[in-house]
Design a protein that fits this description.
It comes from Pontibacter locisalis. By secondary structure, the protein is an alpha+beta fold. The chain has a single domain, classed as Thiol Ester Dehydrase, Chain A (Roll). It is 21% helix and 52% strand. Strands 1-5-6-7-4 form a five-stranded antiparallel sheet. Strands 2-3 form a two-stranded antiparallel ribbon. Strand 5 and strand 6 form a beta hairpin. The termini are far apart.
């Protein structure tokens, strides 16, 4: 049984594809905040994968990230999500992202588990 305080871990291997880039080019050759945020959301999603039924899917509801230190190409970032709250269909986690003992980022993720049919209706383009 999954309960608050349980953890899930995801290892993110930093590659050049994770570097901070915008339309005007490379900003810096370290893992971007965007890439870290995506990995943090995945770490929280590991709970969703354990909880959802075959006819259900998760959808993100919130994400905060406090980017504290760079992660360099070739480094392994360990993202540990801790289940903070499981209330109905809502999964809330806090997480830390570290390279060894160095804190790279921390924050919070939220996801809801919905029936795939309901989710398809919510995400369907609306006719104007």
């Amino acid at each position: 049984m999954i309960k608050p305080g349980d953890t899930r871990t995801y290892i993110k291997h930093v590659t050049s594809a994770d570097f901070a880039r915008f339309d005007d080019g490379l900003v810096h050759a370290v893992c971007s905040t965007f890439s870290l945020a995506q990995a943090a959301e995945w770490a929280g999603r590991l709970f969703v994968l354990d909880l959802k039924e075959e006819d259900e899917e998760g959808i993100g509801t919130c994400l905060t990230i406090n980017h504290k230190s760079p992660a360099f190409e070739g480094e392994k970032v360990e993202i540990t999500a801790v289940l903070e709250k499981l209330e109905g269909n809502e999964v809330t986690c806090v997480y830390t992202a570290k390279v060894g003992e160095r804190l790279i980022a921390d924050g919070k993720t939220g996801q809801k588990i919905l029936k795939k049919e309901k989710l398809a209706n919510v995400l369907a383009p609306k006719k104007v």
